[in-house]
Amino acid sequence: MKRFIGFFLAICLSIASGTALADKDSKKHHQGSYDDTRHEHRDDHHDNDDGDSKDRSKGLNRAAAKELRDAGVDKYLGTSESIKSQHGVWTRHDFDPKYTADATSPTGVRPDGPVCIACTDYSVFTREGDPKKLLIFLQGGGACWQGFYNCNVLGEEQAPPADGPFPGVFDSMSSDNPFADYSVVYMPYCDGSTFGGDNDVIDPDWQTFIETQLGLPQGYGPPTRHHRGLRNVSAGMDVAKEMFPRARQVTVMGHSAGGVGAAAFAPFLARFAFGNKTRLTVYNDAGPIAVNLGTSPAAGGPDIPWLSVWARQNDWQFQQFYPQSCIDDGRCNAFGQQTGIINWRLENDSTIREGFYETDSDATNRFFAQGDGSRMDPVVYRDLILTEHGALNEAYPKRYKRFIVSGDDTHGGVQVTAPSPSFPYPQPFKFYTQEANGTLLSDWATEFVRIGSRQSKFGWQDIVEDYVPVSTP
Length: 473
What we know:
Layout: H1 2-14, E1 28-30, H2 62-71, E2 81-87, E3 90-95, E4 99-101, E5 109-111, E6 123-127, E7 130-138, E8 142-145, E9 148-151, E10 182-187, E11 199-202, H3 204-214, E12 224-227, H4 229-243, E13 249-255, H5 257-263, H6 266-274, E14 279-285, H7 304-316, H8 324-328, H9 339-348, E15 353-359, H10 363-370, H11 378-395, E16 400-405, H12 430-433, E17 435-436, E18 439-440, H13 441-448, E19 463-464
Parallel strand pairs: 7-10, 7-13, 13-14, 14-15, 15-16, 16-19
Antiparallel strand pairs: 1-2, 2-3, 3-6, 4-5, 6-10, 8-9, 11-12, 17-18
Helix pairs in contact: 4-6
């Protein structure tokens, strides 16, 4: 594996002109531009309008779509080129990184296409199911910014198992899985910027770090962090539209860092790709949207958490894609809570609905949310997520709901859940066994995606358990 990685890093360091992917006998596909007619506001049936949107349009309204385009959210849609190959029951789609000569780059070349943070290739995977139902899954894997390198680096390490077993929402055989018959687009995560960044950062400390991590000789590590989150997720959405053009029920789901991406720009890309007639849901599985904002210089800082907030916005440059009206009214602010873009989306997309799963003592998220290398106190973290996500539920009670589990510090529930201080063993069946106030997570998810259909007696509910401390805070 290290020889394989070293080969690609050598390309980034030595190539001086654009290259094509090696398998020239394979079929290439170039996705064309997106048609604005897909954003006509059709009067399809639905049962989840809060009556709180700006107008009576169904789906994303025209003014909001224009703002997003003006901000460049869709700038990479339709620009990717990929090559297909088989990966067990999956189809693998390898993207052309589009290396281009650039005298300003330390290596003399830059990748203009989708790539991972260390300049290695990026791929997504698809699995066929019902062509009208689609699960678009964004994988997690930490985050990286200046001086803080805690992210998955290689997309190759997150390839799905070729032939199984498939846990959680990927289990096509379980009668308890509401996504069992869905087609799947699986996007590995390796950009370090939660699928939202669009910036390259020259960073000598990163070069030293990555050489140590990958066992590379001094001077052979990539000197630049490529935060290509928006390009990568846009390329994945290109594949989604190419492979499943008839999808009419789409769930954008993300775990951890992927949950942040699923709660940020990915739903807008899904609207641009599939239009307003599509029944669109967003499932954030433990994405840490709410964080410690720290103490700013104006308030007597800066402290380390504020410096982390500053470094993220400086390195990732995600704020350039915020719609102007969201900036103007203060909801979208690179130094504020990122729940603002969710609020704006719910206001401007009248049929979307979004769900948030979390444990209130999540040990992983308490580390990333704290921002100074320590873990946030569980009570403080609970108050933070209840305040931020509770405000969304209060504003849009029919279309934003929570599944908050207490007395638990595990991280995520839709796939194999990693060990935590209070639960020291992997949890492969969490999606089917996790409960909150007597309701199974899989049942809650079933009601969540039941748009335009009769609800069961249970219905889709907002569930927040009373606080129970964990054994190991």
